Amino acid sequence: MKHLFFSMLAVCFISITHAQRIPLADSAVTTKHQITANGQKFSYTAKAGTQPVWDNAGKVLATVHYTYYYRDDIQDRNKRPLVISFNGGPGSGSVWMHLAYTGPRLLNIDDEGYPLQPYGVKENPYTILDVADIVFIDPVNTGFSRILDEKADRSLFFGINADIRYLAEWLNTFVTRNNRWASPKYLIGESYGTTRVSGLAHELQNNQWMYLNGVILVSPTELGIKRDGALEKALRWPYYAAAAWFHKKLPSDLQSKELEAMLPEVEQFTMDELLPAIAKGSSLDANSKAAIIKKMARYSGLSETVIAQNNMDISTNLYWKELLRDQGMTIGRLDSRYLGIDMRDGGERPDFNAELTSWLHSFTPAINYYYANELKYKSDVKYNMFGNVHPWDNSNDNTGYNLRQAMAANPFLHVMVQSGYYDGACDYFNAKYNMWQMDPSGKLAPRMSFKGYRSGHMMYLRKEDLIKANEDIRQFIKLSTPKPDQAAKY
Questions:
Q1: Has domain 2-225+364-479 been given CATH number 3.40.50.1820?
Q2: Which of 65, 61, 60, 5 is nearest to 31 (CA)?
Q3: How far is CA 417 from CA 85, 275, 323, 453, in A?
Q4: Alpha-carbon distances, residue 457 vs 163, 190, 460 (angstroms)
Q5: What pLDDT does 23 receive?
Q6: Using CA atoms, how far apart are residues 331 and 333, in angstroms rounded to an integer?
Q7: Which long-range contacts (C-beta less than 8 Å, at least 24 apart) are formed by 307-312?
Q8: Which of the 8 DSSP states describes residue 462?
Q9: What are the UniProt keywords, alphabetically (predicted)?
Q10: Every domain of the chain and the residues it spans
């Protein structure tokens, strides 16, 4: 009878949502599935639905779409971790980590992440669903989520702090509805999602009184930590070295080393020599400048001439255009393993992001197929891979420092950073710099960790890194789970 009820419930909501282009404020479609993950075979439930966003007077302003997975054979869900997942943009849906990283289904790509046909999804044997339940959330105007009240003030949703506030309220309701208050809770965010979850950790703790066990930052942004001028110009260099190493553009002595063995040398050069040299500007004497430019060329695959012509300031756009210019190719922004072809070899920036077109090629058919055919969530509402969330208010971004404050006030809270070495948009060395500045005293260092991978922004697209990164999350959850009766105190 229970399965019959769920089936009838699903049919009811499917028929309603399919008939309109405006999503229901409050809905759910529940389906049952089986999987073998991390060597364990088990059944799980998927609930795809919408939950309202209310104003202070209880009026529905918008609806937020979510997909919630929970393992069925759990006897005590109070001890079962809940992972709350956001992607970035800020106008991006949760599709990326949902269908390519932690969720129970994977889109059809090859082992390096390139699109394959026929489009579709397959089992993800590396999902973290064996150790934690997961909810993937699409903020307003992403995925199937929409503003429902035409008169609603868009500034309530579209800004760093507004986004954090309404999502914290939404999460309070979600956790209450699904009886997960006693569960250990984790936030995971990718790209702009790291800004979101860093702020949410503080907002949930201070204004919803919801305390977390962990925050996972995948390809983090700057988190409001300023780095203008010389810092901005210098901190890119280890990423340039990684990209050059992948494309075999480094001198033989560097190229012959393993990537992880080579990068510390570049990191030391960046902080000890390059940063102070750039800061000196025109006061740097000619001999010292020539020596620095020679090392910059050695570690980047670029010519000394190009570096000198640009006053030692090589923008990322120029780097993506310049590294393989002699081969008539550009390299990707979010993942510099990907190659592009421009209309002309001249210029200072690529015509398009080679990696993003490749990803949309495979993700868009997969997510639309998956919701309609496997989760039985059918709607005439378009799934927004990228939605209109403009104008976005970027002011008062203190999210990195707010995450530090949340950690300081909660001895149980741990943070893990995951970065791809070939990510040129949110590069790995800037991610390390975040950690140093968030915790200048080093007192939180035992609860902060960094993991690097030989791929780009979405490191999990590469099969080897998908396996490693999911296992890193499992170990992070294990590490951040307190012993029975362990008190949260210093």
A1: yes
A2: 5
A3: 15, 24, 28, 11
A4: 23, 9, 9
A5: 84
A6: 7
A7: 312/233, 312/277, 312/278
A8: S
A9: Carboxypeptidase, Glycoprotein, Hydrolase, Protease, Signal
A10: 2-225+364-479, 230-355
